[in-house]
Amino acid sequence: MISKGCEQCAKGGKMVLFVYGYCDQRDCFYCPLGENRKNVTDVYANERRVESDEDVLEEAHRMDALGTSITGGEPQEALERTCHYLELVKDEFGEDHHTHLYTGITGGRENMRRLSEAGLDEIRFHPPYEQWGDLHGTEWEDILYIAREEGLTPAFEIPGIRAEEEFLEFLDEGAADFCNVNEFEMSQGNYRRMQKQGYELKEDHMSAVDGSRDEILEVMGDHEKVYFCTSVFKDAAQHRRRLKRMARNVRREFDDVTDDGTIVYGKTYADPERFEELGVPEEFYTVKSNHVEVAWWLLEEMIEEGDVDDGEIVEQYPNYEGQVVERTPLA
């Protein structure tokens, strides 16, 4: 891995904090934001909509976060929120809690100083695609040195639209510490505009765009400070491993955790007194307002032996929303 932020992401240990949905200076055709993120002022910690600072900290603790990745928007409000949440997580978790920011603007020295003082460790710049190849001698070159002077680790993070050797030059010159290239993807938020630009999905793939990967790897892939982040890896690292971290923290004694990071348990509307009558140990079930949740394998046995009439096996995500993935009836 290239950076500490990437190492933490690979472990599923990076909380993703989305602070703002408006971009005043940019309208990228490949922007992946969906309806609930684009042109909104809401804050999200991972998939959770934030209503208070406590929500952010609870989400970080739920996944036992090693660090925080911040993204979203360009206006001054985004900067204010970013500084606020940087101070929040640093105060809660200490200086070892690694933080990085992904931004599409340069910001200037005063903003770099404010971010550094608030606790930002690493800043990843995403220059406009139209300027790739002509970044030297512009504010995009200047800001790399300014960020470093203010105590930040400067880097690039770009979508894998095409290979661009200028980013390698910045690395060799020591201006940027690394360059992350994210595999070019289609999403619900950008697929119409992407198709108008002539891009198509890779065969047998749900999100990766066909065409650019081989060229990027050929031109940029051998550089020791370039990391190409594939769609498959992002799904496994950012999502599945994060879910596993959450599942380990929130699982009850009778919950099973799957390889995908989901939680599996049994559910029945049988009278809770029935469990007492059968002498079921308390650690194998819990009574809810109108049902009982129980070890799935125990519920299966109880139904087979006629101890209770019916129920279901529930598989759900361990996140705050707890979306149900699958229900399997038992009778």
Automatic annotation (TrEMBL):
**MF terms in GO:** catalytic activity; iron-sulfur cluster binding
InterPro entries assigned = DUF8061 (IPR058374), MJ0021-like (IPR040087), rSAM (IPR007197), rSAM_sf (IPR058240)
State the signal peptide span.
none
Which CDD domains did the record assign?
A: Radical_SAM
Identify the residues that the record assigns to the DUF8061 domain, covering every copy: 261-330
Name of the protein described by the UniProt record: DUF8061 domain-containing protein
- Which lineage? Archaea, Methanobacteriati, Methanobacteriota, Stenosarchaea group, Halobacteria
